[in-house]
Amino acid sequence: MRLSRYFLPTLRDAPADAQIVSHRLMLRAGLVRQEAAGIYAWLPLGLKVLKKIEQVVREEMDRAGAVEILMPTLQLADLWRESGRYDDYGDEMLRIRDRHERDLLYGPTAEEVVTDIFRSYIRSYKDLPKNLYNIQWKFRDERRPRFGVMRGREFLMKDAYSFDVDEAAARHSYNRMFLAYLNIYARLGLKAIPVRADTGPIGGDLSHEFIILAETGESQVFAHRDLVDMGAPGPDIDWDGDLQPLVEQRTRLYAASDEMHDQARFEAEAPQDKRMTARGIEVGHIFYFGEKYSKPMKAVVAGPDGAERPVQMGSYGVGVSRLVGAIIEASHDDGGIVWPDSVAPFGVAIVNLRPGDAGVDAACEQAYAALTAAGKEPLLDDRDERPGAKFAAMDLVGVPWQLIVGPKGLADGTVELKRRATGERQTLPLEAAIKAIGA
Ligand code: 5CA
User: Fold this and answer.
1) Which of 386, 393, 390 is closest to 404 using CA atoms?
2) What percent of the chain has pLDDT over 70?
3) In testing the pocket of ligand 1, which one of 285, 324, 327, 329 has its CB within 8 Å of the most ligand atoms?
């Protein structure tokens, strides 16, 4: 992409009401624009990052055996009347009426819709297990939308739903998601801690939240310190084998959200120097709730004995749009955003220090062609701007590499290569720089 033709509206200062660093940086780097409280337009750079996060989530869900669908944003109120949640959900639900006077709502989650899909097609244990997921916009009319995309009213969620014949199989499905989530966050460059959590309006008796530590987070966590560096299981696990030992390894140590916290247990289970009380951002939440929806909605399957029983369900959410903010909270410096390679909107910024200089232009074009061919998605800053403004803009938008091309260096046959995360600079020939970036 040539910056002169792109749409990257950066701001010198963030609006005063943007309180936390990720919100300020998202506005300054031109990732999003607020349209109404908690409702955002995604500008090109923000959209690129959102799509990359989505893709990491999709790949790890597929690996763990889930199947992607796409459910509508608008749902029939009648389905929620069947489950009994229509009246319970309260003011957070955005209720709509169509021209035929039918009650609709903008989905805050999709247990009812997916249960309706399931019961229309699946009747036998032989078709189980199934895990259906979608990555779709949700709406919750939050009382206090704040911190930008962190607590929005309209937000992008990956929500998955598992269906199993009995509780043992359902726990296996839960364990798959538990481990897949750890792999997702690790690929996004985040250290996520699974903590025992309250089930709230989703319901059920087994639930974990995935929290990344950040002082500005809205969640309070109490956890054994060793969980922070425990790491993810990695992709090469036997998803059909016994996953319980891997899950237990990560649930043995004390970790709880504030609603589930038990100080006496915390003190008994974690030595004082290992007790961590911290703030964090909830980037995922998984639930096992058995028959809560399948029973009232009559989603039943015949077991091996021929008898029908309500299918055992769980649901699994990842806050995809929230993750954009969460990654920035975890990875920034005074100059701006520092994207992990896995979600960076561009792989490398080529900074042309003298547009119009034939030699500099030619070197930039050569680098642009080579890096494009190698799939590195270069962003070429070909604007007629001062070098200082260009450096500040590229630091702000946080692309992992900066390839700086100017007339002085070229006279010696060199360019400069800067790694955004460390600030480390190398002076080297153009070909070598292109190679160092991985092309
Ligand atoms: N049905 C279940 C799982 S699919 C569910 O809705 N769970 S949830 O309510 O915990 O939401 C899942 C994830 O969405 C949360 O962990 C959080 O990361 C994200 N999320 C929830 N509310 C918001 C919001 N207002 N703004 C941004 N992200 C949100």
Assistant:
1) 390
2) 100
3) 285
